[in-house]
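Exercise 7.
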Amino acid sequence: MQQARQLSTVGRIISPVHPAKSPQTRPEPGRRVKKLKLLVIISLCFLLSLVVVAQYSSLVILNYRVSSARAELAVIQEASRVLELEIAQLSSIGRIDQIAREELGMIDPEIDQLRVLAVGRNGSSRLGE
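Solution. The predicted structure, written as tokens, is:
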């Protein structure tokens, strides 16, 4: 009898009173619902993270476009300033007088070549002396 006890404790013989569960048992319905909920939550978190990443990437793209536009604006403003300076130089009275004398051969008029016109308030003009 002692040998039988030893065998039962050492070998752990399964008694027929407690039958073993079959390995292909189905999970409980509650557990299945929990797994489905967990899957849905993980999927939603993944989608939300994709939305956040998309927002940040669009923000980066817009910042790049703004910086490009600012750089282009600075170039255009510099070109405008250079053109305004050139306009001021080309339209100066001294330059116009120099071109008239040197390139066109113009001279100052004599006193007897001048005529002064005076304009009245009513729009009539008369020859001055």
